[in-house]
Amino acid sequence: MDIKKTGLILSGGGARAAYQVGVLKAIHKILPKGHYNPFDVISGTSAGAINGVALASYAENYRIGIRHLERIWMHFSCDQIYRTDFWGVSGSLSRLVRSLVIGRRYKNDPVSLLDNLPLRNLLREVIKFDNIQSAIDNGALHAIAVNCSGLESGESVSFFQGHYSINNWQRQRRVGLRSRITLDHLMASSAIPMIFPAVKIHREFFADGAVRQLAPLSPALHLGAEKIMVIGVSGYAHERKERQPSKSYPSPAKVMGHMLNAAFLDSMETDVERLRRINRTVSKIPEAVRKKEGMELKHIELLEINPSQSIDDIAGQHAHEIPRALKLALGGSGNASHNGSGVLSYLLFSHGFCKALIDLGYNDAMRRSDEIKAFFADHFEGHTE
């Protein structure tokens, strides 16, 4: 049986990405003991890029990598991601306000709501970037992509490290550039605009990869994936919500949450819908006709796993875990989860919230164990130890 290269797509979403860890933990449980890394290609954006690179660095010891990733998220606290002390938050906030009102005094002075230096220090300690090339050289991994958004060019840039056969690519406002993945790529990919500072890579500043990411599935396909698993972070994906009457003017937290949802969730849902539509079209056209007409369209097997519950609502249940200084910066409650748009769910890197999302992801995936086994069937015939 031909083994198709399997791609893993990990979307962004700040603290919401803890859900992905739960799904990956379940996959580790479902697949046969002794199995090798099931993901040939990994494409991550924002916090999903952090999960993806962590997995890639353990591609030669996949099972250990899953445990390592879970251990990191289970012991998260907000102060490991950004400064939560009063002076740290107030200093960042004052610089942000000053730059908006009177301009910037220093050109290279970062402007953001929060200082995420603690995250940089944490990632430097827990991710072994040198292991990625070793995994590629030994065939345990085909490629890894970290997606960023260029603030000058306006392009979605996929920095990738992979097999020598993979070439750079360029599409409308989308490019793929071979690079050795570093800490700067991760910090740039997770730099939520105005919340975390942008990062300069080579000649340009880059921010969160979810911004202007028109085709989140595309990088994995360019890197050679022939079927893809998508682990999203949008509760009730593809379901239309009822319009609720507005009782008051939207709070800053609600407006910010709406903008984050637009950046992190909408493009992924749209691209998945597009792929399903293409697959339906391809199924109606005989292969002989496609070859005769030179049609490059082909069926891409897709398995999508999304939260079965509203992550905003779960964040609301853990609102008491938000640091006091951040609560003040967000205008009091810092939470708009009760009306369906919570910025809190992106910033609440607390033990209780992360554990709840890991458990949700694990249970959601375990309920779909038959689908997961079927999706990986070709990978594991004759590959168990």
Automatic annotation (TrEMBL):
The keyword Hydrolase applies. It comes from Thalassolituus marinus. This is Patatin-like phospholipase family protein. The lineage of its organism: Bacteria, Pseudomonadati, Pseudomonadota, Gammaproteobacteria, Oceanospirillales. A motif (DGA/G) lies at residues 208-210. It comes from the Bacteria. Residues 8-221 form the PNPLA domain. The active site is at 46 (nucleophile), 208 (proton acceptor). Keywords: Hydrolase, Lipid degradation, Lipid metabolism. A motif (GXSXG) lies at residues 44-48. InterPro entries: Acyl_Trfase/lysoPLipase, NTE, PNPLA_dom.
